[in-house]
Protein 1
Amino acid sequence: MVELLAPAGNLEMVKAAVENGANAIYAGARGWSRRRDAYELSDEQLHEAIAIAHSGGVKLRVAINTNMQSCEIPALLEKMEKFVGWGVDGAIVTDVGAIAQVHHRFPHLVLHASIGANIVNNQDVKFYHSIGVTQVVADTKLTLRELVARKADLDTGIEILIHANNCYTYLGKCWMSPYFRLERTADDFGKDLFRGSPNRGGLDYRVCLEDWELFDGQALLEPHIALKNEAFFYLDDIPALIDLGVHCLKIQGREYPVPLVASIVRFYRELIDAYLAKPTGQAFDLMPWRLRLEAIRAERDSKRSNMTSVLLNEARQPVPHTA
Amino acid sequence: MGAFELNTTISNLRDLRESDLSAYHAVYLGNIYCRLFEDNFLERMDDLKEGIARVKDQGLRAYVTSYAAPRNDALPKVQIALETAAAAGADAVEVHNLGVLRMVHEQFPGVPTHVGGFANVYTDVGAEVLREYGAVRFTPNYEISLDEVAGIARGAGIPAELQVHGKMPLGVSDYCFLLEYEQHWPEKCPVLCQKQLFLKQGDWAMRSVGKGVLSGKDLCMLEHLPALMAAGHRVFRIEAAYETPEYRLKIAQIYRVALESALAGDETVDESAWQVIREHTAVGLCNGFYFGRTGGEYIGKHVEAAAAC
């Protein structure tokens, strides 16, 4: 049975995801996941989120998927000790060292290799499996055709992002944003938030979405260059993904408003259920779903566009330097 | 290895033939970004064999690199390149992808493996895992600081290789946006990406090489070499995959002299060296993330030189 995995950028979103049909939820530990701290949960909130999720029969995975510093690994393990004690159902991790350490300390905990691990081929999957990972998030460039060709060779679970951004560069292999602005700020617990680095602190200024001009030396070649970075929804491929036996369909969006995330979760819950309920051999008409998704897409695009403007403006602000 | 190693990157045989490598100790062969790069060593095995032989004939170490993000369909070619590298006596292979690291570890256990900058080494415990997979050297992820690098090398017990000059990698894609526009331009793939293409907006600039995004500014650690030496680092790279043979030579001559001076305890760098640096930089200089700051910043005594380019 395919699992619908929903984002939780705050406690209200945890409740909304549970109420709207998610099978599992992921939430970031504040300072430790690939989103800015405003969309992460404190330890106490994570404790409460686990309880809310479990009371609704839903699993909760904690995202600890920044590329942290070596000196932060002991603090990470301390946090995980708490989360495991509270019954967290799994952890989403990027750094190979962190994966190995968490697996060594908590051998029965389900570990997911994050999108930040940028797993692009089957040998990659086997590598991560060998250090303790049981599920991997497929990169956003993976096509259905490639997935079909790859899946037979794998015994590791694959998570497919059905709502996410398809960046110009590979996620986890891009440091354009901190090249233009990196602010080193520690939170109350001493965790460096690396503001501006999506890999290290989660905040990405989306500089790729700037209106670039292309120069050949000093000569202007093109006045407007758009590096592709599009938010997408999967629809047409959902039936095929379910038929293929994909383990998990994952929705990104911790940074979006709760009602929008709730509507996305509800949409996919009902789509999956409708497809699974259809008699074998009967065609499945996606047209009504397409129409319904358009309204959600319009709202998402509006929110995303506003956020991008704010982030690009923030990227131009000077960095306050401490001595 | 001698007292230190200075190395660089060359993508194809033509560039290798045209380059004076007398200031270097080692060369990485191949272009990590794109399979369509003009006559990429990683796609032309006869060229790769000849390239390895040419480098070794000059008394230098020949390393063979591999793709930054190879999808499944590229792995057969990667496999052939690894086989060729091993058979032709390459001194090491460089891997940026952990799946490829696994391939080398299982199939070519005798070939020394350098882990490249796209392999995302951020922690000492991460480097330890890769060492267990055969890594004997690592290039840290480009966005970590020198303090972190030192800790990783110490903790994992393998040396770091540091880029000390050239455009710093900022990202890699599976898609080349230049192909959308090339019909408007006289140059086409596979030579288009070798032009001096810069994405600019206001005072921001990045070098575009199609599937790769590089810093607009040249990372320059010339005045910081004594500190790097004092911290125990001995392996340095001039990143020049998309630069001219002249750039590769002139910059290397400066660094070779400066590194030998630093090793001898002399921290002075001739002012004429800065003039050459300025002449070979289109946008300016930066220190990357080595000092824990925004990657495009330059920190040091030569701020004016860095900005005046």
Protein 2
Amino acid sequence: MASSAIEAEGLVKEYPGGVRALDGLTFGVEQGTVFGLLGPNGAGKSTAVRILTTLARADEGRASVAGHDVAAEAARVRSAIGVVAQRGGADREATARENLRLSGRLHGVRGAELEARVEQLLGGFGLADAGDRIVRTFSGGMERRLDIALALVHRPRVLFLDEPTTGLDPEVRADMWQEIERLGRDEGITVLLTTHYLEEADRLAAQLAIVDRGRVVATGSPDALKRELRGDAIHVELEGELNGARAGLDRVAGLRDVTVDGSALRARADDGARAVPSVLATLDSHGVAVASVTVARPSLDDVYLRYAGRTFGEADQKENGR
Amino acid sequence: MTALTHTRYMTATHLRQLWRQPWWIAVSLVQPVIWLLLFGALFQSVADLPGFGGGDYITFLAPGIVIMTAFFSAGWTGMGLLEDLDRGVTDRLLSSPISRPALLAGRVAQQTLTMVIQSLIMVGIALLAGATFANGALGVLGLIGIAALISAAFASLSLAFALVTRKEETLIATLTFLQLPLSFISSTLIAPELMPGWMQSAANFNPVEWAVEAGRAAALGDGGFDVVATRAGLLAAFVALAAWLALKALEKYQRSL
């Protein structure tokens, strides 16, 4: 039986001014898996990482990482984890090699073992030629790769990646995804990844927790979460008011979860393509003009809409605009 | 043991950062030399006033400028930490097994070691400018030891202040506000007998004055060993208090996360 690498139970964290960043966050991560915390900006993901990496303390609840309580055994947790924070945190006035050496030494890795590990990581992260360059001169992607290498010098059991690809170019992001996939596969360590990119969670995480307003609203594998939605998403862009058509739509066979948001009509159906003609006929009979229709396999965006009650884009923008 | 080893790593890291900023090194070496020569020339005739005992001014001034430089540069120690806080370096270190005191002590040690080298150069320039250190090499060593104490104390205070305020502007404004008054309410530039009475009384509570008195007593032999010993004791207590405040400030910072 696989034991839990991370356990969080009822974590609550409130900041001055009454901002409740975490509101009873609970989840567990199995050893050796890549686990994603998915949520919009401001959902509390980074606060959760800060608590699990012993940087911050929860007001309520408890958590353990690699079998150690984050509050009572902080020192043991720190030795067992590697952390890549959103802001990185490499010494930009030092070279990549100097950064790696310091990180290793602070974790008690010394001498020949340290040198070998530093060379291995520089090579593995495509920084072999940049080892003696000052980090300030690095590109964004290089610096991010160094950040991850820094967190791995001491071969941690659990790696935390807080928004690892935020602010990177799309191509660099694709490279990072490969690196992270490789970590989960080759190094066999447990990875906790936070992200507000749906496609990132979909691609990298074996298990997901969807976080909204400091709580977990759904957990499962990306596929299972999508499967739970049972069926395709139908999205109709209306040109006019729905008027009396709503009641008619409820009678269309196989159509569920009908929601209307302005001119956007969303619904689900086991077989989307088959339901579209009936939907269009119903709308037409009520005199509602249609601008466009799309049918899609369920996405994590739909999962988010279902559990958080708002679309991911809306939530993300709202929190950004705070 | 871990704390010492980690302090060594961090000190080496910060010394290397400094070494890679040659312009900064040049300015920090030239500035005190300018003070020494400029003040030495400007206030030359001050030494003719009673209270100086007929000695020459550059001899009187040199220990004062060594202390003043130590006190001034130590105040800026928090700036580097603010940059680290801003870039996430401090947070990364705090989630690693680094000894908490070492996280701060590395910066204090770097500042103080740099100051020792600065002081040696200043003493050399002062000698070339005609100063005489009556107590010889041992006296100069005592002066530098005292300067190290004031440096360690104000470097720690600067770190504490940076951790609490977390704003460069606040640190700069506070230093600008405090540095000159604390230097002038002391015998750095002028014999204590020539200061107004209220200033003499205020100076008794000024750590900069403790350091100037002790440094001058050590290097020039004014006032004897007990002046050095009592002031050094006061300064050591001040260093302990400042270090304690810095550690409390680090705890406070972490609680705010």
